[in-house]
Design a protein that fits this description.
alpha+beta; 6 strands; 2 domains
């Protein structure tokens, strides 16, 4: 997990600047990052590779970087988690002379973990930075009953994106609840805004 954080924090992997159709629920992988002249860009690619590394990566770090690349490809191309079930064996057959491919072991369960608990935090931070640059924002929430009587609270943010130069609606997070009274929902929303560092003073309105 530490290797994963190191790769993401060093901006080895950066989200795309490719324009994608807007939807009411956009995934965090669409978040664009500001890049400088030292970073090579490709408008047709879903990643931007930073070739300016301060040091050579270890074998384990290269393996983690490969996992990040595949995780981003899975999100961008809309692959299911199940599509990664036999990927390690496939990569070994495709690249028999690669030590990274030989040691690649990320299947569907680890893929889900990497996306949600690894790269997900990176893109949420990028989203928060973009939201805080906006003059104001609207918070949208949707309450859905899932297994049993549990409820899922989905939060989205609508704001003027400085990076995209248009109004966007972005998925922010989902919160699992038991009983969802008005007090419980409001408390979770306020706690989430505070914990992620989103300026409550810029909140323009709430919507469903």
């Amino acid at each position: 997990m530490q290797h994963l954080k190191d790769v993401m924090e060093s901006r080895q992997l950066i989200s795309s600047t490719t324009s994608l159709p807007s939807t009411s629920i956009n995934s965090t992988e669409k978040q664009s990052s500001h890049t400088n002249s030292s970073i090579s860009t490709n408008k047709s690619s879903f990643v931007v590779l930073n070739n300016n590394t301060d040091r050579a990566l270890t074998h384990d770090e290269k393996g983690t970087r490969a996992e990040c690349y595949w995780a981003m490809a899975t999100i961008h191309l809309g692959f299911s988690y199940a599509s990664s079930k036999n990927i390690p064996e496939l990569f070994t057959l495709m690249f028999p002379d690669s030590k990274i491919a030989a040691d690649y072991a990320m299947k569907h369960r680890k893929l889900s973990y990497v996306i949600s608990h690894g790269t997900g935090h990176f893109f949420i931070r990028e989203l928060v930075k973009d939201v805080n640059k906006a003059p104001s924002y609207s918070l949208l929430f949707d309450e859905t009953t899932i297994v049993g009587v549990r409820k899922q609270l989905d939060l989205h943010i609508r704001y003027w994106s400085e990076s995209k130069q248009c109004v966007v609606t972005r998925y922010w997070k989902s919160i699992m609840l038991g009983h969802a009274t008005a007090d419980i929902i409001s408390r979770h929303i306020l706690d989430s805004l505070k914990s992620d560092g989103i300026d409550l003073g810029k909140l323009l309105q709430l919507g469903e």
